[in-house]
Amino acid sequence: MSLTADKLTNDERFSGDNVLQFLLYLPIGLVLMAFRIVLALILWIAAIILPNKSAVRQLLSTLACWTFGVYVKVKGNKDPCCSVLVANYVSCLDSLAAAHTLGTISLRKWKVPPFFASTLGIKNAAQFVRKQHFTESPSKPVLLQPEGGPTNGKGLLKFTDWSFPIGNKVQPIAITVERPFTNVTVHCPNDKIDVFPWWDALWFLWTPCTVYTLMALPAIERKDENDQEFVEKIRKAIADYLQVEATAWSWSEMSRGRPRAARLPRGAAPAAPPAAPRPAPPAARRVQEVLPRVPLADIIRDLERTRSVDVTITNFLEGITPYIPIPEPTSEPQPSTSQAPPKYISPTPTGTFPKTAKERQMSFQERKNQMIAEARQRYIEKHGLNVALNC
Q: Where is the CUE domain (predicted)?
């Protein structure tokens, strides 16, 4: 039987069965939280003062593990030839556990202070649109968690959140977390993918210890598979080790509204929910304001993959993501004493990426100039201005 979306998330913080033990530990947890807050202040000052060197980063990573009570166990062997590691998504501190033990960089879209991101081993995903950006840290492998959001570990979501095209050799990492009393992640209706879950991180300070187990599975090489088949092969390897179901849910489908199981009378069958049109997300509307001729379905599809408005706009402008442009609306010609201004039409992306930097710059500049002229023309027509275009 397939899992439903409400079975993959935690909606309550308390996870134990013995409430008395939780209450007895409560004052001890508060004292431990106060001590760890002092450690957090030391970590903040050290991250600002100390130079950005490998030994210093390792020291700060160790101090961060002490601060959040994180203990990491690594099983299996990391493949030194793999620059990309793919793991399941369990908590907001997965990146800290992997950076501390495997020396990885995790791609995130969170808006966090620079010192905090550096300590947790986080890099902004928008900086890694293409693989050549890895040259700034060639010795550090990159940890990807393409589920897009955390689950409670009972199932594995579809892998849809890829920041760049994957290579031909990837090593899967299976992450499990154990912690007394409380769940490591609690989902709220207003969860946002680009906001760090500070409330979940605060509970790490209160909990006595959070044990991460990172299992490095054998590296997987692409044979004759396409991208979708190769991604599914990686997902199946992680799901088989964790002994969980590889579900048909994606994080975007869950984040639109996590349905809760309603209590029904005994013997009654659940009614099918009525189909309703889904409104366009705000990010898709922002992209369509800049690129009005790109179909909304193509925008949403690319946003589910990139999770970034800027990266999606760049993909359409540079022809990385092909699309069929929406035809311009036709209107009856209106008499005018001045010469009719010319219409500007954005070229359809060819789907090919220019080879040289000069060609890419010229291609981007041409599209930019045409977009500006097109927007200016729409403004003149909307307000009925009698202005001659000066190109």
A: 283-319
pLDDT tens-digit readout, 323-380: 778 876 655 555 544 444 444 444 444 445 555 655 655 666 677 777 777 777 776 7
User: Which bin fits 31, alpha (ψ -120 to 50), beta or left (φ > 0)?
Assistant: alpha
Q: How far apart are the first and last CA of the chain?
A: 64
Q: Judging by DSSP bridges, how do beta strands 210-216 and 169-178 pair with one another?
A: antiparallel
Which positions ≥6 away from 207 have C-beta within 8 Å? 29, 69, 179, 180, 181, 182
Q: Which helix (H) or strand (E) holds 172?
A: strand 169-178
User: Across-strand partners of 213?
Assistant: 73, 176
SS3 content of the chain, % helix, strand, coil (to 5): 40, 10, 50
Q: What are phi and psi of 142, to 5 degrees?
A: -105, 130
- Rounded to whole angstroms, how far apart are CA atoms 358 and 57? 37
The alpha helices in 103-226, defined as continuous H runs, are 114-119, 198-206
User: pLDDT tens digit string along 186-233?
Assistant: 887 556 667 788 888 899 999 999 999 999 999 999 888 888 889 999
268-288: buried (b, 16+ CB within 10 Å) or exposed (e) per residue?
Answer: eeeeeeeeeeeeebebbeebb
Element spanning 383, H or E: helix 357-383
CA distance 184 to 203: 8
**Paired sense of beta strands 169-178 and 155-156, if any:** unpaired
Residue 262, pLDDT score: 40
| Distances from the Cα of 71 to the Cα of 105, 126, 142, 208, angstroms | 19, 30, 21, 11
C-alpha 61/C-alpha 202 separation (Å) is: 17
Length in residues, the chain: 391
Q: What single letter denotes the amino acid at residue 271? A: A
Q: Which two tokens stand for residue 390?
A: 């000066």
Of 1, 2, 8, 3, give the one whose Cα is nearest residue 251.
8
